[in-house]
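Review form for a predicted model. The reviewer records the input and the model, then writes brief findings.
Reviewer: anonymous (R2)
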Amino acid sequence: MERTLNFDHWARHQLDAVEAALETWVPEDAPAGLGEAMRYGVLDGGKRLRPLLVLAACEALGGSREAALRSAAAVELIHAYSLVHDDMPCMDNDVLRRGKPTVHVKYGEAQAMLAGDAMQALAFEILTPDEGVEPVLQARLVRLLARAAGHAGMAGGQAIDLANTGRMLDEATLREMHRKKTGALLLASVQMGAACGSPTPATWQALSVYGEAIGLAFQVVDDILDCTQASDKLGKTAGKDQEANKPTYVSVLGLEPARRYAQELRAQALAALERSGLADVAALAAIADKVVEREN
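Model under review:
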């Protein structure tokens, strides 16, 4: 498996392209300040992990850059909208996100709700241009993203999360919750990037296993950081899950077992890349390392 890559240089090039695309596609002139709230919620912040996964998977398969860039922007809009809504008082009631006040704190609850709604709709508009992306590919990308965002994915996982606050879950139930809430969109990012190329069934399966492992590893590490890092390091409120008595990998497994599990998931992801049959998966492998080794 090829691992020679200046990842920071590669990632900066990709992120500059994603940021420019979002700057272009997220409107400033939406009515009554809505555009300002949308742009505040999605621009200039976050790790942009999901777009990087899209672009890395597309590059590994030599796929369509246009389709991948649109997919990267769309998946980031879905992620950003979910954060806007999750932070609201009716959900997680958080006041800090990406190192700044949450959208409802800055613009009010009604505007935050509308901004999230508009970002979700915009994601699918971006995926369906009049030209540049074949209609069959458009449909596949829309289906992958919609499924990851809806009841079978992110929204369903959040529902499970809210329903189990204050309850002790077993590891299998916790894993299923996070597979939907966090993992589904990360898996979809890998699959959308792969769909921009022409993967064989074996390659698709291997990349899907990689995406599932990365999705779960990200959440395990998130749970670890929530109880080991300060808010200024995380860019969001630390200790929030423990304070709300929510089940996490640390509360279910313990801190050191959770750390070992994250390493096991990284090994699973890298092994899946080995089986993918792709010549250059250096960016995907580096992302797996970054997910587990990150400190915020």
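Findings: The beta strands are 96-97, 100-101.
Further findings: The mean pLDDT is 92.
Recommendation: see findings above.
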